[in-house]
Amino acid sequence: MIPVISKLPQTGTTIFTTMSALAAEYGAINLSQGFPDYNCSEELVELVNNAMRNGHNQYAPMAGLMALREQIAIKTEKLYGAVYNPDTEVTVTAGATQAIFTAISAVIHPNDEVIMFEPAYDCYAPAIKLMGGVVKSLQLEPPDYRIPWDMVKRLITNKTRMIILNSPHNPTGTILSKHDIDELTALVKNQDIFILSDEVYEHLVFDGNIHHSMARYPELQQRSLIVASFGKTFHATGWKLGYCIAPAYLMQEFRKIHQFLVFSVNTPVQYAIAEFLKDENHYLGLPDYFQQKRDYFNKGLEQSRFKLLPCSGTYFQSVTYNAISDEKDTDFAIHLTKEIGVAAIPVSVFYRNNTDRHILRFCFAKRQETLDKAVDRLSKV
């Protein structure tokens, strides 16, 4: 056996794979991994089938089907007032995770420092490390997980190359405010710092709030790579289709990596979504749709011993279980899966040093009967 020097020696199987497998093994209700248990639009499925039958089964252009890129640009301008050139500033990707990896690969060099906020989606830090970059993480504090901008300022050095933001935020369900935007704008002014903005839950913002996309603010837009996901938006996570938008000078570098990573992505799905996007109601109704699910799930959990944390976006609800157990969150999540029959994600896995504050994350993008069964079981804990 030839010795292998691992590039990610501390990395194993993701917690999402682990908990979903455990849920399947024990027949538990899977509220861990972030995917719906209901089907996507039948109209969208038919559009994919039509594209296949009409012969759209070969390679798409490297940057994505122009018809889809045009619809992405139209949607972005409608929502945020930002104009992107579909020819040079929009690229279709094989999901958001690929877009995030590509964006980091495009601009991060050895010893470049990247500021990120924990708890954080687990693909950020490994991508930074693979590029030889240095992770500078800042832990956010529950229950509100607000960014302490005075502490962010202290992290910035002449090696700081990127700040990664995620709003609406996975796993906490928090969103950026206008105050955050103002602080960020002042922070990066006259600095050579890029922004990677993970906006895959852009349409899942609740309680009358708005999504503060980097695209809304010209001074931030010009330094930002913005990532989004059709899988999250249209309940089809298995299709792995997303995109990145960025000014042309950044997109040029993004595509240099993209063309050798995947080259192009699923052609018939691109045709289908290009057509589906022409009706803006397919995404404008999502905030109300998911807020109803959040409220329904939370009303049920109010009868339990779990304590709800604030949730302003995404389809994840975080809870504390201090009134139930003093077990580590990883152990308690396994216990909950095996003994109670509900799988959740322990939030400590979103920290590089596994900070444990006895918090679990549930996914409420489920059918009502699934949520009813889960609440019934959780209320008995």
Automatic annotation (TrEMBL):
Known cofactor(s): pyridoxal 5'-phosphate
Source domain of life: Bacteria
Keyword Transferase (UniProt): yes
InterPro entries: Aminotransferase_I/II_large, Kynurenine-oxoglutarate_AT, PyrdxlP-dep_Trfase, PyrdxlP-dep_Trfase_major, PyrdxlP-dep_Trfase_small
UniProtKB keywords: Aminotransferase, Pyridoxal phosphate, Transferase
GO molecular function terms attached to this record: transaminase activity
Name of the featured protein: Methionine aminotransferase
Organism: Mucilaginibacter litoreus
Species lineage: Bacteria, Pseudomonadati, Bacteroidota, Sphingobacteriia, Sphingobacteriales
